[in-house]
């Protein structure tokens, strides 16, 4: 059993290297689009090889472009040529036999003075916990280089073997807005993760800033603000998921149970003032971060149907609606509403885990 993740690495190319990468990325995309147009016109796969493509790219990169073009053509063919995708975002891809790395550089063939030459580009491969280099010890896939928000990023596909533990300790995790996540172990240890008030404030501040920029018609600044907000949200999800997995690991948890996300936007209770936050926060991404980080340390992730998990009393099984964040049952049982959800998630029936995006 294994899972494939994408490792992102910041590149620091020289001015000359950046110019070469920019040109290669544009050429790579235009090559794919030209090949797709030809295949659509002929309504069949291309038989071209790298020697038939006269563009300024290394032969290995040309072969990857042909492979990607065939993949795009397959999608067009599936729609009976009603939808023919045209790639726009400049990227360049090398297969796993055409790049290498050490502690400070990633090397791959670049077009220099009309010839393909293996070139070392400075890269931030060493982080605080050596996490990047540890991940790159596993089976590597393609190297994709692109530019995002003015910064060069290398994305390497990594396939990691999953070795799951044999224990039986279970932890339930309830996701929400006011409290991003609550975890309860099967021996009743409880922990809250994230700061819902801070998240709400930050998102409101981003929206307010964009509204002011909109009045000044600063469209580029608005786009930049949206990118910054997305990066901030993603960073919050990384921090929360890492803390949850560390908590599970420290408590020798074997299984983390999460709510199935198919209907979370319908089942999550929220006020009108929280509605914008509900529909812009990615519960699915947080769930996926928890899953892949848990798998890396041998913890299994299962999904359960969250229906009534925040209403059912764990003592007498009676169903009661909550008052604000407090839950009170007729039998006398009282607890925080989100803790109740996490408690019940531990033991409700497990579903297949094929949850929808949220």
Question: How does this model look, in words?
Answer:
This protein has helices at 15-42, 59-78, 131-135, 196-215, 219-250, 264-267, 275-280, 283-296, 337-345, and strands at 2-11, 91-94, 100-101, 105-112, 115-122, 139-148, 151-161, 170-175, 181-185, 190-193, 255-259, 300-304, 326-328, 334-336, 350-351. It has 358 residues and is α+β, with helices and mostly antiparallel strands. A 6-stranded mixed β-sheet has the order 10-9-8-11-12-15. The chain has 2 domains: 2-161, no CATH class; 170-351, 2-Layer Sandwich (Nucleotidyltransferase, domain 5). Helix 1 (15-42) crosses helix 2, helix 4 (196-215) runs antiparallel to helix 5 (219-250) and helix 5 (219-250) packs across helix 8. Strand 9 and strand 10 (190-193) form a beta hairpin. Helix content is 39%, strand content 24%.
Number of helices: 9
Biggest β-sheet, characterized? Answer: 6 strands, mixed
The CATH topology of the largest domain: Nucleotidyltransferase, domain 5
Query: What sort of overall outline do the alpha carbons produce when their principal axes are compared?
Result: elongated
Radius of gyration: 24 Å
User: Residue-averaged pLDDT, rounded?
Assistant: 86
Roughly how many Å apart are the termini? 26 Å
Helix content: 25-40%
Order of helices and strands: EHHEEEEHEEEEEHHEHHHEEEHE
- List how many beta strands DSSP finds: 15
Q: Residue ranges: pLDDT <50 for 5 or more in a row?
A: 269-279, 353-358
- Architecture (CATH level 2) name of the largest domain: 2-Layer Sandwich
**Strands of the biggest beta sheet: in what spatial order?**
10-9-8-11-12-15
Oligomer: single chain
Strand content: 15-25%
Keywords: DNA-binding
Domain Cas12f1-like TNB: 283-345
GO molecular function, one term: DNA binding
Protein name: Transposase
């Amino acid at each position: 059993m294994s899972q494939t993740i994408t490792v992102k690495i910041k590149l620091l190319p020289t001015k000359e290297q950046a110019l070469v990468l920019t040109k290669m990325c544009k050429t790579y995309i235009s090559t794919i689009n030209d090949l797709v147009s030809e295949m659509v016109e002929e309504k069949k796969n291309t038989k071209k090889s790298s020697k038939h493509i006269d563009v300024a790219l290394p032969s290995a990169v040309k072969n990857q472009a042909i492979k990607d073009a065939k993949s795009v053509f397959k999608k067009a063919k599936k729609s009976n040529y009603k939808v023919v995708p045209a790639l726009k975002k400049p990227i360049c891809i090398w297969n796993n036999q055409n790049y290498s790395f050490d502690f400070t550089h990633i090397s791959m063939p670049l077009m220099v003075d009309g010839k393909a030459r293996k070139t070392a580009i400075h890269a931030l491969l060493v982080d605080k916990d050596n996490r990047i280099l540890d991940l790159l010890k596993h089976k590597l896939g393609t190297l994709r280089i692109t530019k995002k928000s003015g910064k060069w990023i290398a994305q390497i596909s990594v396939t990691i073997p999953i070795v799951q533990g044999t224990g039986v300790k279970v932890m339930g995790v309830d996701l929400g807005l006011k409290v991003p996540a609550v975890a309860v172990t099967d021996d009743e240890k409880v922990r809250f993760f994230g700061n819902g008030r801070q998240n709400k404030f930050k998102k409101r501040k981003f929206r307010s800033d964009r509204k002011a920029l909109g009045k000044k018609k600063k469209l580029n600044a608005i786009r930049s603000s949206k990118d910054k907000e997305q990066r901030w949200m993603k960073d919050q999800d990384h921090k929360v998921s890492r803390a949850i997995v560390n908590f599970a690991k420290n408590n020798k948890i074997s299984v983390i149970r999460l709510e199935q996300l198919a209907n979370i936007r319908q089942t999550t209770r929220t006020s009108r003032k929280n509605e914008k936050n509900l529909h812009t926060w990615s519960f699915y991404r947080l769930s996926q971060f928890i899953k892949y980080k848990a798998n890396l340390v041998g913890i299994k992730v299962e999904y359960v149907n969250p229906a009534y998990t925040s209403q059912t009393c764990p003592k007498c099984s009676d169903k009661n609606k909550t008052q604000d964040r407090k839950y009170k049952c007729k039998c006398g049982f009282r607890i925080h509403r989100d803790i109740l959800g996490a408690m019940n998630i531990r033991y409700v029936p497990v579903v297949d885990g094929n949850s929808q995006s949220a």
